[in-house]
Amino acid sequence: MMLTMQWLFFVLIVLIAPSVYEASNAATGSVGLDELSFDKVINKFEASLVKFDVAFPYGDKHDAFVALAKDAKDLDDLLIAEVGVKDYGEKDNEELASKYSATKDNFPVVKLFIKGRKEPISFDESKGFTSDELRRFIREKTGMYLSLPGCVKELDKFAQKFMKANVDDRKKLLKDTEDIQKKLSSKDAASGKIYKTIMEKILEKGDDFINTESERVKKILNSKVSEEKKKELGIRTNILQTFQLATNIKNENDEL
């Protein structure tokens, strides 16, 4: 009798273990999708970032995706999801992945699905598959706010207001930014100066300064610079993107 009970317990563990492992392996804040639930769930959100990958992902790229999922947990309009693909047994989700040009030869593949847009946008990992690059990608394509290294949320809001305002209001917002800058912690002080400098340059040279400065910084980053300088320029790029996104939204609204 005892042997029979032990055998039954062993069988139960074997049956349950795979599903327990799969659940524990999912990224925190990420939703697992399959061929039956994919369209149903995706269509409920304004934007969905989906990673097509092996059934049990691991490594630096998966860790970057996990970090992003945690950071995006408070964005109600954005879904972070994963499709686990098996190339054995019943080959779960293989057909769904293939539909979006994702195969075991190019996993992981990340696609951004935006409501009202027929085709998803592919994440280009040529700059690196990191949580920062994933956040930049989402911000650039959707305009949704996701904090980036060096960005200050309160000043990001002022940057967005600044780009939508007329010249007189911009001068007032610059003064408000200076007041906030004085109250920043030592950790954010350097970033505060960058916001202020960019606003001053825009008032002096116009909105085109954002694009020309972004190109200038990009060229420097592509040259031989120290890691410390790369970090500094990366922060400047992130802050410039906040101004750039606000400009894009303003231009889109002007066209309507």
Automatic annotation (TrEMBL):
ERp29 N-terminal domain location: 27-149
CDD domains, per database record: ERp29c
PANTHER family: ENDOPLASMIC RETICULUM PROTEIN ERP29, ENDOPLASMIC RETICULUM RESIDENT PROTEIN 29
Keyword set, alphabetical order: Endoplasmic reticulum, Signal
InterPro entries membership: ERp29, ERp29_C, ERp29_C_sf, ERp29_N, Thioredoxin-like_sf
N-terminal signal peptide: 1-23
Domain Endoplasmic reticulum resident protein 29 C-terminal: from-to ranges: 150-243
Keyword 4Fe-4S applies: no
Protein's name in the database: Protein windbeutel isoform X1
Source organism superkingdom: Eukaryota
One family name in Pfam for this protein: ERp29
